[in-house]
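Problem 3 from the worked examples.
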Amino acid sequence: MKEIYTVIITETTDKKMPYLVYVPDFDVVTEGKDLNDALYMAEDIISLCGVDYEDDGKFIPTPTAIDSIDMSVSHWADVCEPSEIITEFKTLVPVDFDLYRKKLQNTAVRRNVSLPAWLDAEASKAGINVSAVLQNALKAELHTV
């Protein structure tokens, strides 16, 4: 199931993790070392919450419209002083709960792969795990973590 959730991103003066992320629909927070990381972390925490809700038999919250999110309430009183906040803004984060669930299922699938005999022999002699090399190559090719 694909959805788009609104998040509030707060940029602070903190050097290590300057971006704080609040997800109103799940009432959770996360952070990021830069804006790209903050958006990735927002997608991750929303996806994780949604999968957890499903597993617990709860309904996943319907996304709140971006215009309905109240920016006047501070979510960071326990985390930082108002003087440390540089800027705050709302943005949308798309999530795919089904795809996230598939990534969590790390079940191995058997595939038949053909290699030249000499290459297989060299890999065996070097102690190389061909399955691991193939997995790493596919992840790099697909630009996944």
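Problem 4, a separate protein:
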Amino acid sequence: MPEAVIDLRAVGVRLGDTPILRNLYLRVEAGEAVGLIGANGSGKTTLLRLLATLLAPTDGEGGVLGVSLRAAGRFAVRPRIGLIGHTPALYPQLTLEENLAFVARIAGIPSAAVGEVLDRVGLGLARHRRAAACSHGMQRRGEFARVTLTRPDLLLLDEAHAGLDAQAADLVAYLVREVQGRGGAAVVVSHEPGRIAPLVGRFVELQAGAIAEPGTAAP
């Protein structure tokens, strides 16, 4: 069987004696987009952090992009993972352009690409504004610009449409389709399954840290 982008086998995450994720089996193939749903506190954000290599499993085995989540080598694939979480990963005292220029520099991306992606997400005229002075929606667009710039092979979106106005909602679809087109995969968390249904091939539901119905078809 070809190597999957995500392959979790009986994976669990415990905080002390408290299980946060329990006995997860999840395989996501290249070119696939999966919707992740569940109530608050069900473990969705913890699962994204696990897939982003920010957490290691305490039980079971799993890998992302061909590297074990328990191995030190997992850090080497982090540049190939794009995570957009609840809190913007922007330096507040830097401008939007400076934030992206810093990312481009450490990733070895030509600086000319910074202006292009800012224009693509509708922030071209705000490039000199400090991140701290931007609205939540603008910061969210800044995050989308970062992911567009780095072209990840695994895209992880936590509450994908949060803070986006109607004009920016198409950016979610753009990012998902882009990573699929490169042969990568996407996991998209949303409290609005109907909104992301056109973007994903199936849904996975978490209940109390466990997968309720793996592989359920998208509605």
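Solution to problem 4. The chain has one domain: 6-217. Confidence is low (pLDDT under 50) at residues 215-219.
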